[in-house]
Amino acid sequence: MLRTTSLRAAAGLLAGLAALGSGTARADVKLPAIFGDHMVLQRDLKVHVWGWAEPGEDVKVEFHGQARTTKADGDGAWSVSLEPVAAGGPFEMVVTGKNTLTFKDVLVGEVWVCSGQSNMQWSVGSSTHADLEIAAANYPNIRLISVPQVGTQEPQKDFKGEWKPCSPQTVGPFSAVGYFFGRQLHQTLGVPVGLINDAWGGSACEAWIPRETLAADPKYKDLLAAWEEREKGYDAAKKAYEDAKAKAKAEGKPGPKPHEDPDGLMKGNARPGNIFNGVLLPTIGYGIKGAIWYQGETNAGRAYQYRDMFPLMIETWRKLWGLGNFPFYWVQLADFMAEKPEPADSAWAELREAQTMTMGRLPNTGEAVIIDIGEGKDIHPKNKQDVGMRLARWALARDYGVNVPCQSPTYKAMEKKDGKVVLTFDHVDGGFRPFDVNEPRGFTIAGADKKFVNAQAKVIGPDKVEVWSDQVAQPEAVRYAWADNPVCNMYSAVGLPLTPFRTDDWPGVTANATK
Questions:
Q1: What is the maximal distance between C-alpha atoms in the chain?
Q2: CA dihedral for 315, 515, 358, 310, sign (positive or negative)
Q3: What pLDDT is stored for residue 367 in this prediction?
């Protein structure tokens, strides 16, 4: 059974998943909701199709001139693989057992998963120029599907959802970042695009990872131990909540608030493994090109831990999907909260650093820097168009051979010279262009005492910036945009903002946070 075998073979990450694809015996052939009318299949990739039927039932799948037959196993699970198909459509897929299912208006093109927390979930209808964007969303060859938010420790094999052609009637509730990313791909490549939105607002990274995977790494011992304590107290907390509700009702008084129900914690978006089991797992195995990700706000208080957890999540997804190191591109956290006149520690800066580090740890990854388009008063900046386009640059340049710059300038090296620091950068396409004023802003500098002060700076070459301060005679370290909401203005000539960085590795405020 191809689906089950590939999952079990993934480094033993989920013991007991051998029965994942199994369902109760049933007379009718059934497929998960990821297959249906209007779906997009990934081009130039073997088409993996799976489902359930009566144990021992013969099942036939026909698509694009191909036919494959198989037999449902003892649990009723079956799967087949079809040869890759070029972009095009519409086509039909016919699945026959004791009954026949016909999926119509099937396209073949590029399929991407759109994942993360609220800034990925944030809808087109709530974004900048929503009325104009919705009115113009006539893209019948872009297809959208959203996975409901189900948090559970029990592996799920299906979800409730359906593919829909993109139109003014369907695009409003969909992920804005996902849509603007997919639209740019569609307009540039001229092929169908399928977008799978499974984002969950407020979700923690650990909820997207199999619990067994976290348990196998001692770095997450404290995190899991804290959750085990909460779980031990669940029965008592649930009984107390229900008793309080019943008493309030009998007395005609207001009862406990819904958010006090411990079910919210157990079935929520932070419990390790919950979203992996309930949201992601039912889609694993479906052919995709890659994934885009916007998450990290919830984990900012444990930013050092994120240095390892985020790469672990990506590696786990890649192993389970069985498609090699598929492209994985994410959004670095935007600027947020109050601007501070003097340098200070910042958990959000440390989370951004952890995100940037991931590019050096894993292949085929990329980061869209948006330190310039956040809103200090709102954790959900409405400008999702620029976010989607900066992500699309990565995919177009790295995966589709389009000659466009994709990576923001990044720190490369420093040299101390005559009481100043000369910084050298990579990926400065066309040289630096400070925004609004000629002087670079956003740099701070410190000596051996590790006390940072605001610094002066000057562009002295296409990839070089000189930094100094009269208050620091012998500088040891420089930082840029190192704040929750930094005042900074450095861009490459093509309009990509300089990636926040620091030259030091002095312990930060989240260095010891583990739970």
A1: 82
A2: positive
A3: 98
> H or E element: which one contains 93?
strand 88-96
Please give the pLDDT value at position 185.
Answer: 98
Residue listed under structure tokens 């959203």:
146
Q: Strands 40-42, 66-71: parallel, antiparallel or unpaired by DSSP?
A: unpaired
Dist. CA 192–CA 106, nearest whole Å? 10
* Tens-place pLDDT, residues 72-120: 999 999 999 999 999 999 999 999 999 999 999 999 999 999 999 999 9
For residue 218, CA distances in Å to 207, 310, 513 come to: 17, 16, 14
Q: Which two tokens stand for residue 41?
A: 């299949």
What is the C-alpha to C-alpha distance for residues 68 and 48, in angstroms, rounded to an integer? 11
**497: DSSP letter:** B
Write the CB contacts of 3 (distance below 8 Å, at least 6 apart in sequence): 20, 21, 48, 50, 77, 79, 285
CB-CB neighbours of 333 under 10 Å: 27
The tokens for 201 are 């607002």
Sign of CA dihedral 390, 391, 395, 398: positive
Number of helices and strands (H, E) in the chain? 12, 21
CB 202 within 8 A of CB 118: yes
CA 500 → CA 335, 355, 358, 507, distances in Å?
11, 11, 14, 17
Q: Do 367 and 499 contact (CB within 8 A), yes or no? A: yes
Q: Which of 37, 80, 35, 41 is nearest to 58 (CA)?
A: 80
DSSP 225-248: HHHHHHHHTHHHHHHHHHHHHHHH
**What would the pLDDT profile of 182-204 be if each residue is shown by its tens digit?**
999 999 999 999 999 999 999 99
In this structure, is the dihedral angle defined by the CA atoms of residues 95, 101, 102 and 107, taken in order, positive or negative? Answer: negative
Q: Say if CB 296 and CB 355 are below 8 A apart.
A: yes
CA distances from 508 to 194, 359, 450, 514 (A): 41, 20, 12, 13
**Residues 199, 113 contacting (CB under 8 angstroms):** no
Burial 22-59, CB ≥16 within 10 A → b, else e: bbeebeebbbbbbbbbbbbbbbebebbbbbbbbbebeb
The structure tokens 């998943």 sit at 17
Mean pLDDT of 132-155: 98
The string of DSSP codes covering 278-335 is IIIGGGTTS--SEEEEE--GGGGGGHHHHHHHHHHHHHHHHHHHTSSS--EEEEPPPP
Structure tokens belonging to residue 306 = 């994120």
